[in-house]
Amino acid sequence: MNQVKIEDAFWNDRIRLVREVIIPYQKQVLNDELPGVEPSHAMENFRIAAGESKGQFHGMVFQDSDVAKWLEAVAYSLATHEDPQLEKVADDIIDLLSKAQQPDGYLNTYFTVAKPGQRWTKLAEDHELYCAGHLIEAAVAYYDATGKKKFLDVICRYADYIDSVFGTEPEKKKGYPGHEEIELALVKLYRVTGEERYLKLAKYFVDERGKQPNYFDLEYEKTSDKSIFRYPDDWDRSYTQSHLPVREQTTAEGHSVRAMYLYTAMADLSLETGDGELAEVCKALWDNVTQKRMYVTGGIGSQAYDEAFTIDYDLPNDTGYTETCASIGLAFFA
Fold first, then answer.
1. What gap in Å lies between CA 304 and CA 9, rounded to an integer?
2. d(CA 319, CA 308)
3. What's the Cα-to-Cα distance from 116 to each of 32, 104, 120, rounded to whole Å?
4. Percent of the chain with pLDDT over 70
5. Predicted structure pTM score
């Protein structure tokens, strides 16, 4: 991160805007400090989980990821512009996260505060591993930017716990995330720590996806709460790229952001492991996206419903959805 310095009038102005305006504004939002703005409750959820406040969880199941993404943005800003005051704010939040971490390493406010005892029961919908992935990315970025290990140590404990839960061993769950993210994050964690188990876990999550029997089918049969997606009526397996094992996929399908995060992890894994087969799959998916399912603007995911890919060359100008997150994911994949 510190080996590249941007010197460009266009980008430097936007980097300054992020540093001076956006990051401080987002801090206020996360802490519910702006009158007239709907409370985020993201930081308050962590205070409750840490025992520093009392109350109920508020927000989406993935509310924790807002804090993680903010910390990651702070890390990137600190890498290019020293700011002791901002770094102190981030350090205080990291202290709070460490207090919210459970004795076994688990760190998620929704399942700690709102649904204790229900961890890993609805992987298709509840973004547990997605939030974990964003926390991992934030910790890696913060360590790279500052050299401080506390956040990284917290997250390694969490990753070690996740590794104890998921895998092919008989005593482990053979699940994977409904929203990909942790896969690419684990590769980053491997790169900064050198711990092979994180790379192995990333490979497991990638290769287990789409195998039969489909894990999400089995999970849905067990749950009594079928109120969110009403699977499989509202969306099929392609929404989560679990319609086929990833090595058999040749076209970009389903939710475009999820797809890009998956493909990014696949590309990273092929690079780290020398997996030529996985590299060829990535090339085929890249060609399908960029040659048949991408707007001239670089936007992808043409359909608002499911924020998804549709079919080749279905790129309407008047209703093109092209979520920003999907374009960012495409940049990751590139």
1. 34
2. 13
3. 25, 14, 11
4. 96
5. 0.96
